[in-house]
Amino acid sequence: MAELLQFIFSGLTVGAVYALVALGFTIIYNASDVVNFAQGEFVMLGGMATVFLAAAGLPLPLAAIAAVVITVAVGLGLYLFAIKPARGASAVTLIIITIGASIALRGAAQIVFDKQFHRLPSFSGDDPIHILGATILPQSLWVIGGAGVILAALWWFFRVTLTGKAVLATAANRLAASLVGIDTRFVVGLSFALSAGIGAIAGILVAPITLTSYEVGTMLALKGFAAAMLGGMGNPIGAVAGGLLIGLLEAFGAGYLSSTYKDAFAFVVILLVLFVMPGGLFGARSVERV
Amino acid sequence: MPETPTRETPMPETPMQETLLEVADLASAYGRVKALKGVSVTVNAGEIVSLVGGNGAGKTTLLRAISGVQPVIGGSVRFLGEDVTRLAPHARVDRGIAQVPEGRQIFAPLSIEDNLRLGAYRRRDDAIAADMEAVYELFPMLKARRATPAGGLSGGQQQMLAMGRALMSRPKLLLLDEPSMGLAPILVDQIFEIIASLKQRGVTVFLVEQNAAAALSIADRGYVIETGKIAHEGEAASLLADDRVRAAYLGI
Ligand SMILES: Nc1ncnc2c1ncn2[C@@H]1O[C@H](COP(=O)(O)OP(=O)(O)OP(=O)(O)O)[C@@H](O)[C@H]1O
Ligand SMILES: [Mg+2]
């Protein structure tokens, strides 16, 4: 029982991060049909920039905010200088562009930062909290809670604000969105900024637990992509569910089978989804497209 | 959006013959296929002007070009005297051009109310709620289902939603692309009645149709387009009486 709970805690913690990465994929995919494989780099930048800004003397909260701002700027730059000029290019071309961008960002991070692993101090100490015989780190609660707050904020943005509805409208029907006067390029730029911001926050929240380095983005992008596929590409609820599921799968797999193959589960999920249910658990958005 | 009785609209007194839209020698192509080969069309304020023509004649391409969602390779589009040929689509909505596109193109997953609200996306005034009520008055069946996803509406209801959405921008010029396509005959009559009534509400209409008889019967003037070129133009009544037009488009 205690062991089971322990696996659930660690699964939900890492799953919350995957969920946020998957949401980043989803937001950009819906607004622009681009599968952005640089999504993991946003997570890396958030964590690494915070580490280095804090090391440079900024108080942690300020360093974190600055890191989010920097990452958002990078996300916008990715859109403006790499995606927007390729307007009209095929999906495959755009995917290759984002893969290229992620390699470039990783290279830049290696130069601007370094090749070491870094740890951020935990936000509320490292004393584990005991629950029913299992333990959870306060930082895990920060990760899970932070993901919850981001989800609530996104829900509000898309359901309540006119700008959020304009993003949904653009995803639903780009032509009609242009005809009612929505600047669809602004919407795509906004979705890159939003995804970058979400990725950065995820990277900052999890850095005290998993450590961070210039190359953590690669694996996170893969896991997040698997989560988005599992939930159904383009489906935000599916993305969150997919992220949590993959997190739990990894935790249980590592606990009951072997931690050697922990990272393989995401690949297995990608392959299974591709072969068995291309629409994912919750159905891909493409069914609604004409 | 047309005026409601409770509010004064700042619509200037427009002389009937003020030129609203002036398309001159417009050319457009899909790759190497020329869809418009020098089209000239004028729409004056207060008119209903119909453009009729067969399959693939270039009607949709012309409306897309007027709204700015279709690249042009020659000619110009002027609106209220201003050259808007290179303006972005949203800037043209600001000028007062709205379109009900072919196939309705509603925002299917969004609610009916959100569809209408997004029609007023560019507006910053405080009469949006009142205008939405006016649209609900025009299309009462939309109000009953306002909170449901628009994708659940029937074809005719979607057409009305698309018209309501376009009216929500308070357009000076409403472009309608085959509003009767795929609708039951009784709905077709209803749609044309509503289009004719827009004139009383001060909305100028440029209507594109394959249903030439119905489109010309509610119009002041008309154009006939054939393979990317205007073939005939004139008073709607005289086009309806023209033997060549009757033979080609009215099946008489
Ligand atoms: N997306 C496209 N790609 C290539 N060619 C196109 C495209 N859309 C239209 N065309 C071509 O451009 C020409 C004009 O098409 P358009 O859609 O403007 O005609 P239309 O008058 O609206 O026809 P319909 O009454 O069938 O709607 C046709 O020859 C058509 O085949
Ligand atoms: Mg057409």
Write the layout of secondary structure elements.
The complex is a heterodimer of chains A (290) and B (252).
Chain A: H1 2-32, H2 39-55, H3 60-83, H4 91-112, E1 129-131, E2 134-136, H5 138-160, H6 162-172, H7 174-179, H8 184-210, H9 216-231, H10 236-257, H11 264-276
Antiparallel strand pairs in A: 1-2
Helix pairs in contact in A: 1-5, 1-8, 1-9, 1-10, 2-3, 2-4, 2-8, 2-9, 3-8, 5-6, 5-8, 6-8, 9-10, 9-11
Chain B: E1 19-30, E2 33-44, E3 48-52, H1 59-67, E4 74-79, E5 82-83, H2 89-95, E6 97-100, H3 112-119, H4 128-138, H5 140-144, H6 155-167, E7 173-177, H7 185-200, E8 204-209, H8 212-217, E9 221-226, E10 229-235, H9 236-241, H10 243-250
The structure holds adenosine-5'-triphosphate and magnesium ion.
Adenosine-5'-triphosphate binds at residues 30, 33, 35, 53, 55-61, 102, 210 of chain B.
Explained architecture:
The complex is a heterodimer of chains A (about 290) and B (about 250). Chain A has one domain (about 1-275): ABC transporter involved in vitamin B12 uptake, BtuC (Orthogonal Bundle). Chain A has about 290 residues and is mainly alpha-helical. Chain A has helices at about 1-30, 40-55, 60-85, 90-110, 140-160, 160-170, 175-180, 185-210, 215-230, 235-255, 265-275, and strands spanning about 130, 135. Chain B is α/β, with parallel strands linked by helices and about 250 residues long. Chain B has a single domain (about 45-70, about 90-250), classed as Rossmann fold (3-Layer(aba) Sandwich), CATH 3.40.50.300. The structure holds adenosine-5'-triphosphate (ATP) and magnesium ion.
